Amino acid sequence: MSSPILKLVAQRVALGIVLLLAVSVLIFAGTQILPGDVAQAILGQSATPESLANLREQLGLNDPAYIRYFRWLGGVLTGDLGTAMSSGQDIATSIKGRLWNTLFLAFWAAIVAVPLAIILGLIAVRYRNGWVDKLISGLALASTSFPEFFIGYVLVYFFAVKWQIFPGISTVYDGMPFGERMQAIALPATALTLVVLAHMMRMTRAAILNVMQSAYVETAELKGLSAFNVIRRHAFPNAIAPIINVVMLNLAYLIVGVVVVEVIFVYPGMGQYLVDHVTKRDVPVVQAVGLIFAAVYISLNIIADIGAIVANPRLRHPK
Amino acid sequence: MADSKAKPGLLLDIRNLRIEATVFPPGEPPKNIVLVHDVSLTLEKGKVLGLIGESGAGKSTIGLSSMGYGRGGVRITGGEVILNGRDILKGGKDGFRKLRGREVCYVAQSAAAAFNPAHRLMDQVVEATLLHGTATRAEAEKRAVALFKKLSLPNPETIGERFPHQVSGGQLQRVMTAMALCSEPDLIVFDEPTTALDVTTQIDVLAAIKDAIRDTHVAALYITHDLAVVAQVSDEIMVLRHGRLVEWGGTRQIIKEPRQEYTNALVSVHEIEHAEQKPGTTPFLSVKNVTAAYGRSRIKVLKNVSVDIYPGQTLAVVGESGSGKSTLARAITGLLPPEEGTVTFDGRPLANRLADRPKEDLRQLQMIYQMADVAMNPRQTVGTIIGRPLEFYFGIRGRERDKRVAELLDKIEMGKGFSDRYPAELSGGQKQRVCIARSLAAKPKLIICDEVTSALDPLVANGILKLLLELQKEENVAYLFITHDLATVKSIADSIAVMYRGEVVRYGPKSKVLAPPFDAYTDLLLSSVPEMEIGWLEKAIKGRRMASAGN
């Protein structure tokens, strides 16, 4: 690999880091604007002016905001996300298991959704404007149009209540056997797949159709390649950049946007954790989860950018 | 013609071919149009038939029918296409797939677009051979390298490892020819293979294609709109117009004794008499020592360029692509502010940047572009398009404006009825005329014409050139005429600037620039212009070799 690619990639990564820092400032500032502070929240009803002042002194809340910000940032960078106010537990420890659960669910949803979306997109292009294309597009759009909670409850109704194939509540615990764990996440993973499928499939279809107008696709047809090989060998490699982009966007959604699905299936992931602590007004947890979500989002988008750069032969093989 | 099945040497026999397409005109129900009206042709093994005509003549459509292919919803609705003794139209989709890339191969106009940017050249060159299983990968690659050598490509052993963007346009065109030859087909359809190339590159590619055809004994349909080019490579020529056969005969007969009036018009198309005007005493626009570059690049696209333009005269700027012709226009108009040097207009310097120029300066310099259809707003009528400069520069509105628009339409030899039409309803030549009228509406002193005839058919281009000359006489407007086509230069220029790699290598009145002794580059340029003469190619190549050996 040569210098232009390295340079572009380094630029993207640097930009991502700057962006993440900016987001951390926003998150911190946002929680500062809220009325009340940690000391008030901890002491609650029993607060007296003296005890408040003492606790503020103890927690360093009297320092200027930027010092507190850097203290917080320093903690985050060394793996210390602070202590949850509601439970007094270390946030980093409780998030670890949750994050792993969320990633586990997102991973299996993605393993199904991404190849399925791309293959359906390829098939839709192959039979474009025919009934197969319309059927695929129609079903995919319908599944996206339904809200997640609706899909979730429909799945629960049929698979958990009526046919009793999968559990309706996705409880997982440490040391759970893999098979049982997979069974537990079957329904939330299906719901997530249905939600993200259409977007990726439509984008794959559009990106490839765009390339199908090119002269080199005609060249391939005039070599005698079959329609499917023309799409697979000649159109798809050139449509990959927009496809990577939309795939990454949806992967980010699988991790960050699962709140509703996790709540429906009572799945112990990040989303549930966030919702629980928002209702308890537990600011340090909300900050930590917000920052992790932002980091996931930004890193996946950087990967998409880098993927698009690497997919471009002009950048990969300069003159 | 005798019955084909009796003739053993016959490769392709197209009988009464009829090709139709459905068009969807805006605001009207879809309708069927016939693109090719019952055309018949025969081609013997190892022979080359040139198909010639303007755009819309159906040449490419007929050529592609030999592979059973219709571009963009075009349908073969009648006739027979008999290839190697069988009617391929009866073979269905599988039949087409088996013959494409094996019996018949295709060389496209723009190889740069026809190669897949994502794959290495070698993979693409051998793809058809491997697909049809006529050779193993090793054999096919060996064959490809031999073809690269035959087509005199540089580094034939390793060029296949490159990606299309790493190879120049002329080389790509040769690689594409190698790709077509690699599966050892019986017939190759060459669809304007040299049209997109520079004139100096065209001659090399043409010679390479001709040698390859001769040595491999492949038959070819050679499609082009340039009669001089097709005369170099074909045994027979078929002239087509509006999807109908005009004339079909041996190459010598077609170019020397055309029997049809239309063929005659094609043969004699480039002859416009234009007496050169002597340069006046004071130029109204002079470009002095202009140097320019794009972005912060250190590569100068223009190097110390100086030219003068006199009132009512034409300065032609010639050179191959990348020589800086269009950049010169951009520097003069202020679109690309020069780094050094000045542009003076009527004795005062023009602001470098377009944004710093007063409206009056903008009015005096107008432009016409190569692609007339993208230079107009497709949602505005011709009347609005031509009327816009009248409103913008002179504040003429309402009935007065409509009157002026009608006058301008009259000047460009188009009737008043065109005023309400949209650009999509016009032909290529008409669109370019509208662009001319639009620039004239500003009453400029100078019109910069950037390759204005390059995208047009020869006869239409000829009409545009005649119109420009007439308008010059009437309006006393000067032209800066950018072109790569020396024939155009001869017909329109008063003085000529030859550009090469950002520099003006030869500059002066037309008669001097086009008279020997020539510098090496001008000589190369002049000797590369195809002439309507059998054997010109060999002569030109031979002359060039001697010249380059002499350097």
UniProtKB/TrEMBL annotation, chain A:
It comes from the Bacteria. The chain crosses the membrane at residues 12-34, 103-127, 139-161, 181-200, 243-268, 288-311. The keyword Mitochondrion does not apply. InterPro entries: BPD_transp_1_N, MetI-like, MetI-like_sf. GO terms for cellular component: plasma membrane. This is ABC transporter permease. Keywords: Cell membrane, Membrane, Transmembrane, Transmembrane helix, Transport. Its main location: membrane. Pfam families: BPD_transp_1, BPD_transp_1_N. One of its GO terms (biological process) is transmembrane transport. PANTHER family: DIPEPTIDE TRANSPORT SYSTEM PERMEASE PROTEIN DPPB-RELATED. The keyword Transmembrane helix applies. Residues 99-304 form the ABC transmembrane type-1 domain. PROSITE patterns: ABC_TM1. It is a multi-pass membrane protein. Belongs to the binding-protein-dependent transport system permease family. It comes from Mesorhizobium kowhaii. The lineage of its organism: Bacteria, Pseudomonadati, Pseudomonadota, Alphaproteobacteria, Hyphomicrobiales. It is found in: Cell membrane. Gene3D superfamilies: MetI-like.
UniProtKB/TrEMBL annotation, chain B:
SMART domains: AAA. It comes from the Bacteria. GO terms for molecular function: ATP binding; ATP hydrolysis activity. It is a peripheral membrane protein. This is ABC transporter. It is found in: Cell inner membrane. Pfam families: ABC_tran, oligo_HPY. The keyword Signal does not apply.
